[in-house]
Amino acid sequence: MASPEDITRVVLMGIGATAIMDVWLTLMKALGVPTLNFALVGRWVGHLCHGKFAHASIGQAHPIQRESELGWVTHYAVGIAFALLLACIQGVAWLHEPTLAPAIAVGAATVAVPLFVIQPAMGAGFAAAKTPTPAKNCLRSVITHTVFGLGLYLSAVLIAWAWK
């Protein structure tokens, strides 16, 4: 059973990894690479809460009040959930002595959620098939989620060091 300390570590690790991913996305955006608008995630979640899962195009769906804030909260909540997934797979001992490979593997594997759930539900098709450049979009997603995995590891290392 996880202790309150372990739960705190997981939450901090998820926040840290998501923040590292956001730094990566900011860098990509500064270089002119298209990135996800989290307001559209908020719009999707808002419609999901009203019973609508799939959209022909989330950009054309009716806007939701405070969708940007909802999108960012969802983004960080999912990051924490993925950190919890890593802790469940590796066990809480991993939080105290993190290793790189499991964090990268879980981070990279989380790309399945946007490719096979969120993108189709938002109207982009499975693995971005309905976008102008599906292969590029998939590669960007894989890289971004691998960066998230690196963020899981770096956050866990920093938290383990700070906790000593």
Automatic annotation (TrEMBL):
Keyword line: Membrane, Transmembrane, Transmembrane helix
InterPro entries referenced in this protein's UniProt entry, alphabetically: DUF2938 (IPR021329)
Name recorded for this polypeptide: DUF2938 domain-containing protein
UniProt superkingdom: Bacteria
Coiled coil: none
Transmembrane segments: 7-27, 76-96, 103-122, 142-163
Organism: Cupriavidus basilensis
